[in-house]
Each structure stands twice: as structure tokens, then as C-alpha cells.
């Protein structure tokens, strides 16, 4: 019975007042992270300054990254020279040397075999030790194996470089060039520029600081207009939809600005302390963004409190 009475009172209150939510005024933010852990050597802007797209913001020290880029470019050039050598194949002089080594091996093999053949009958007559005969035979066999190795070496040179080796060389060149290109991009990013027109909201680090990789060096507020970031109480969540018109009351101003709901989260969260409305302190809320569609919106500051009343008549 008590629950029914409370529900009736809540519906009556909603009927008298337009559904509303509290929050803050926000601009879209862009954080420019540090691409490398280098010292800040120049800051070209100040907080609160309006900048155009492409404007210089912060300059980091270049020396170490330039040296690393030069080393990677040298490695890429070296890999390219190795690939050129592989594609050209063996030189004529190398083939001539292989032929000469083969001729020398054949001569040594013939001499070793002849010596072994001379010792063999002497061994049968026991005029020489059997071990000497065995060593001569082994030496002849070894010399003939060296001939076969020299033949294969010459054949390998005459057939040229294998296609697999050329493919590996091309992959090595591509990898070295990619590493150099990556370092070149890092070098370019050491000179931070504004990706979009906006206002410099924050410069967390000062001249001479060395921020860690990924730390924001500059934060920009961008976009044509701010938006209201509000928390919609659970009781009125079914009445708030994307595209629905709204009235935005900015702190310190009496007149309302027209707006439209552009986003509302489907996952609930606990209502933050500054968006509590009476008994709603124990209820869940849903984060929503309401874009301001009219009025003098370009001069509105970020962070001021806002109150949003949602139209009960549906979408615009």
C-alpha cells in the first residue's frame, strides 16, 4: 500500500514538472600525447588561446630521434645493397675461382689415388705396414670427396642465387624501410600541431619538462558548440530518447538554450554527488549528452553547472 502511494506521488510530481537532469557544460576534448620521452624545448601557445588547425603547440627535443632515424635509414640502405647483390648473383671471378679449386682438388685426388695404388701391391707382399696402406687409401677417398664438394660448389655458383634467398632479402628491405618510416613519423610528431581548430584548455607540462610516453602534452577544446553532460535519473529514463528536444539552463543565466539529446548510455551508473535530486540519491542514473542547438553557444565556458529539462512532446 505504501509503495502504491509513493508511486502515485512520483507520477503526480512528474506530471507537474518537466523531466530534468543535472550535470556540467563540456566541449569535445582532444588530448595530444607525447610520442617519445623527450624534453620540451619550446611552447608556442598559452592556455585559453584559440588556435587554428595546423598551428604549432609544443616542440620536443629532436636530436636522439634524428640519430635513431639516421641509423634505421642506413640499415635500410644496407639491406637494399644486400638484395641487389643477391639479385645480381655470383660474379664471373667467383665462378673462375671455383673452377680452379675443382681442378686443384682433382689433381690432388689423382695423386692420392696413384700413391694408394702403388702401396697396395707392396702391402700384399708385406713390404710396407698395413697401416700405411690404409692411410693412403683413406687419403685417396678423402681427396675424391673434396672433388665432389668442389663440383657442387661450382654448380651452386653457376645456378645463381635461390629465389628463396631473394625473397628473404626483399622482406628484410621492406622491414628495414618500415622501421625507418615509423621513426620518421615519430620525428614529425615531436613538433606537436593542432589537428583541429579549437581552444588550448590545458598544458600539463612546462618548458624543460620531460613527459613520459603517452602523457598528454596539450589538451584542446574543439567543436562548434559545447554540450551538456548530464545524468538522467532512473525514473525518467524511459521518457528520454536520442533526438528528443530539451531546454538547457546554464549556471548564472536565466534564459534557457535550445538543445537536443544526442546520446544516452544504456548502462546505468550511480548518480554523482552534484547531480542528486532529493530522493534520487539512492537511485541509478544514465549518462547523456545534450547538444546545444541555438543561442550564443560559441562563448559558453566548459565546466559550469547546467540543468536540462526534457520536452514531454517527443522528438523534434
From TrEMBL:
Coarse class of the protein's main subcellular location: other
Any matching Pfam family: HH_YBHG
Domain of life: Bacteria
Keyword terms: Coiled coil
InterPro entries: HH_YbhG-like, UPF0194_transport
Segments forming a coiled coil: 55-89, 133-160
Compartmental location: Cell envelope
Keyword Coiled coil recorded: yes
Domain YbhG-like alpha-helical hairpin span(s) in chain numbering: 67-186
Keyword 4Fe-4S in record: no
Protein name: HlyD family efflux transporter periplasmic adaptor subunit
Native source organism of the sequence: Lysobacter stagni
Lineage: Bacteria, Pseudomonadati, Pseudomonadota, Gammaproteobacteria, Lysobacterales
